[in-house]
């Protein structure tokens, strides 16, 4: 059956009744001989509303996946979650810098797993948090109740790089926020735990990654965006100042060691060019400019 969906807002049942009775003979499709005139039909006749039982059944088989990077496609999400059961429906919704996915399965197995056993999953190297739709508001909030901030991560670190350490401290989920300007991950992550005891034990551990020490702080604590140290901010970071200075010195030394003419070999200068326009030469004497970084 061929049909066109027309979304029309009406304010009274009489308007609906009038549309259903309207004469549509002038709209007969002339390209089809003997075609009958189109008629208006309620959309609920074509696709009836779900019953409450069906809505509950669908909710019991659906999970919400958050923190999905914008570069991930529906096929990536489907591939990552297909081992939890047959996926009936999958939809992606963009929320700021990330995407949310709603995945409906044909059974409750996935929902049970992410309720009782896990809070997160991986889409390739990206960690994403998973919320069964049956979780109450209080249960969702409890998953962020015991949170610590892990800082000092090298740039572009992803959650899979930290997987062994996260397992060793009983972490339940890990979220690495991204920079809105370049979409790279920041040098810190928010790590959630099941209990207060787990978070205390994690805070007592000492860990480094790629020879950089990592630090545990409260979620709202500020830290150096350059080295990750919680004891100072980037403007006071010795490592950043040292890097700037060493780079400036390298540029300065390179310029000082460079021959002052463009040909790279010694040549006797023309006496008419040494004193500028007074002798008919250039407007300026040669100058050496030191490169400085500010």
From TrEMBL:
* Signal peptide residues on this chain, from the entry's feature table: none
**Coiled coil, from the record:** none
Q: Where is this region: Disordered?
A: 238-294
Give the GO molecular function terms: RNA binding
In Swiss-Prot or TrEMBL terms, this protein is called RRM domain-containing protein
Compositional bias, Polar residues, is annotated for 258-277
Q: Where is the RRM domain?
A: 152-208
């Amino acid at each position: 059956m061929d049909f066109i969906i027309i979304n029309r807002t009406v304010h009274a049942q009489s308007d609906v009744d009038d549309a259903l009775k309207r004469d549509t003979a002038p709209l007969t499709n002339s390209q089809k001989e003997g075609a009958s005139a189109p008629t208006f039909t309620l959309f609920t006749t074509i696709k009836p509303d779900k019953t409450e039982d069906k809505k509950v059944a669908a909710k019991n088989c659906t999970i919400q996946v958050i923190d999905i990077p914008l570069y991930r496609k529906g096929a990536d999400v489907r591939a990552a979650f297909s081992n939890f059961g047959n996926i009936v429906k999958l939809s992606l919704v963009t929320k700021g810098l990330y995407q949310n996915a709603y995945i409906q399965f044909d059974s409750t197995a996935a929902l049970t797993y992410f309720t009782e056993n896990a809070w997160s999953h991986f889409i390739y190297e990206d960690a994403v948090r998973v919320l069964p739709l049956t979780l109450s508001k209080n249960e969702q909030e409890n998953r962020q109740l015991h949170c610590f901030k892990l800082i000092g991560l090298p740039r572009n670190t992803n959650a899979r790089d930290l997987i062994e350490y996260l397992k060793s401290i009983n972490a339940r989920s890990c979220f690495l926020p991204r920079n809105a300007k370049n979409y790279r991950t920041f040098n810190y992550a928010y790590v959630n735990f099941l209990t207060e005891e787990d978070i205390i034990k994690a805070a007592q551990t000492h860990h480094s990654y790629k020879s950089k020490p990592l630090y545990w702080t409260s979620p709202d604590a500020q830290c150096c965006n350059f080295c990750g140290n919680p004891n100072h901010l980037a403007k006071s970071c010795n490592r950043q100042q040292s890097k700037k200075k060493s780079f400036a010195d390298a540029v300065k030394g390179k310029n000082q060691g460079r021959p002052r003419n463009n040909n790279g070999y010694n040549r006797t200068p023309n006496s008419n060019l040494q004193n500028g326009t007074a002798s008919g030469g250039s407007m300026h004497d040669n100058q050496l400019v030191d490169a400085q970084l500010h």
